[in-house]
Amino acid sequence: MDPYKVLIEVVKTANFTKAAENLYTSQPSISRDIKRLEARYNVKIFEFTRPTICLTSDGEKILRYALQRENIEQELWHDLKNDLNIIAGSISIGSSYTYGEQYLSEKLIKVANEYPDLHVNAYLMNSDTVIDNVKHNIVDIGIIEREIQDNTLDLACISQDEMVLIYNRQIGFDKNQVCYVREQGSGTRVYQEIGLTRLELHPYLVEINSNQVIVDMVKAGKGFTVISKSVLEKEPKEVLASIELDVFRNFYLTKHKDKYVDNNLKAIIDLFECQYYNDETKKE
């Protein structure tokens, strides 16, 4: 039992036995807790030379501390209870480039509308860097483009995406052109290689760590790429054409298994996961 609470109760009742009854414990236990305090500070807390127990001058100092400590704890409980439904402060998200460039802004707008006092710091990077930053608590949560097996991380699917091969419509598809791909470590790169294998293509690869620059190169007729179908949907149809690959990927929300989920983090996780379930319901 907390010896400071025991001290307060003993002083309040002026009786060890009554204090024990109020705290649902035994009188010897109360005595041991008082002795623990005396041993900790190397002082005597009570005078026993009078008819009733009386605090020594050192005991009065410890009592003042015990009361201050109890007040602070009561304030803490009060604040925690009042803040139970308050979403405010800041949170950090690390996102893969594709999700960040194509979908994240919609989520951030939703967060701003629903939780105006919660400020989200968003950072775009490839999936490997997102994973590393989540594991080292550099960001609170991450969004990656492939499933991983890591016993330090929790993973939840939040969205699905289709991959297509795109090329300049006027020039037409030429398998001898270069293929623009993302850098190693990018979740997109994994599915680009799957798509090329599906079509039995072995082009010369040029790495670019920006989806938008890759698309611009394809629009300029300088090559082709495998990329998210959502990218194609935002480009003029008369410029780009596509070949379906029947290649799909999921986006995953990830956090460290030991990450404390406070109100802010729970609100963000619920927003992403609920949005995915809502999208899936609409498809049925």
Automatic annotation (TrEMBL):
Signal peptide: none
GO MF annotations, alphabetized: DNA-binding transcription factor activity; transcription cis-regulatory region binding
Every HTH lysR-type domain range: 1-56
Keywords of the record: DNA-binding, Transcription, Transcription regulation
Pfam family membership, one: LysR_substrate
Residue stretches in coiled coil: none
Similarity section: Belongs to the LysR transcriptional regulatory family.
Full protein name: LysR family transcriptional regulator
